[in-house]
Amino acid sequence: MLARKLLPWIFAFGWVFSWGEYTPLHAQELMATVGVQTGRLGTAEAETFVQLKKELLDMLNRTRWSDYIFSSEERIPCHFSLDIQSRTDAGEYHAHLHVTAQRPVYGSTYRSQLLDVWDREVNFYYRPFEQIRFQPERLTQNLTAIIGYYANLIIALNMDSFGELAADADLKRLTELQRSAAGRVEWDGWRTDELSMHRSKWIEWLTASDALSMRKAWYRYHRMILDRMTINSLACRTELLQMLESWSAAVVTQGRNRLLRLWSENKLTEIAGIMQQASREEKLRAYNALYTLFPTEENRYALLRQ
User: Fold this and answer.
1) 283, HSE (Cβ side, Cα atoms, 13 Å)
2) Structure pTM?
3) What is the DSSP annotation of 211-251?
4) What is the per-residue DSSP string for the chain?
5) Using 50, 70 and 90 to split pLDDT, how confident is the model at 57?
6) 8 Å CB contact between 115 and 99
7) pLDDT digits over 151-203, tens only?
8) Which residue, 32, 35, 147, 50, is CA-closest to 83?
9) From CA 30, how far away is CA 77, in angstroms rounded?
């Protein structure tokens, strides 16, 4: 009976579960859009970057990033915005990359944010009409390595949101990619000895021993709370409040988990919005828990105190 009830949900997302593993039923994983801004360079190289935009778009949407096969409806909506900051005399470009991704919520048209990150350590060479390819076993272009890194990170966060600890294979790919790219000393943003928020940080945080509880909570939040909100919003808010208070207690006794940054950057406003519909007592409890977890972000959930 339980399996029969779950089947419509399972097939709506195009997956069959086999003892915790995904068996694919059907296209590439991403439904990506790309923007390239070149205003700081003037108009001389505008045509060059029209072609680069096309190459990046093709790479993101036509590459098989994993062993999963998604139907067209399941592809993950995401956007990559490359803002070119400067060009050296040697032809090296320096840029900022903004990456966003969303996850559909079952039973609604709402999309929950999976990732919203700025990477300001992007340096690369590009010649007009150069073909852009992602070859993880043979990394020759920093830009493709960076794009591939975020593509795999998006897929990992998406998989963990649909299955408990389902992204293990994706995190392994990310680790291997980071290790290969970190060996190229001329490529910025990959090494653990860099002072900025380098790419290896996310891998370190997601694969650390204390990450398991937060990854399980990522699944619980998406699958047990967001995906059931249209079915029983009261029970979902109760579940969310319990989760926040357990985190708050853990922070007091064990210190801050580093993956709380993933939640503060992508879920905090959404969580506050969900709890805004609760009773006054529950809103105050949620406010207190959130203040313990994210004291510097109080402006984003302050309405819960009123």
Assistant:
1) 14
2) 0.88
3) HHHHHHHHHIIIIIIGGGTTT-HHHHHHHHHHHHHHHHHHH
4) -HHHHHHHHHHHTTEEEETTEEEE----SEEEEEEEE-GGG-STTHHHHHHHHHHHHHHHHHS--SS----GGGPEEEEEEEEEEEE-TTSEEEEEEEEEEEEE-TTSS-EEEEEEEEEEEEEEE--TTPPP---TTS---HHHHHHHHHHHHHHHHHHHHHSTTTTHHHHHHHHHHHHHHHT-TTSTT--TT-SS--HHHHHHHHHSTTHHHHHHHHHIIIIIIGGGTTT-HHHHHHHHHHHHHHHHHHHHHH---TTHHHHHHHTHHHHHHHHTTS-HHHHHHHHHHHHHH-GGGGGGTGGGG-
5) very high
6) yes
7) 999 999 999 999 999 999 999 999 999 999 988 989 998 987 766 667 888 89
8) 35
9) 6
Token pair belonging to 202: 């996310």
CB 216 within 8 A of CB 206: no
Place of tokens 């993101």: 60
- Give the largest Cα separation in the chain, rounded: 68
Q: How many CA atoms lie within 13 A of 62 on its CB side?
A: 9
Average pLDDT, the chain: 88
- Long-range pairs of 225-231 with CB within 8 A, sequence gap ≥ 24: 225/274, 226/105, 226/106, 226/112, 227/9, 227/105, 227/106, 227/107, 228/106, 229/105, 229/107, 229/108, 229/274, 230/106, 230/107, 230/108, 231/107
Which region, left, alpha or beta, applies to residue 148 given φ > 0 means left and ψ of -120 to 50 means alpha? alpha
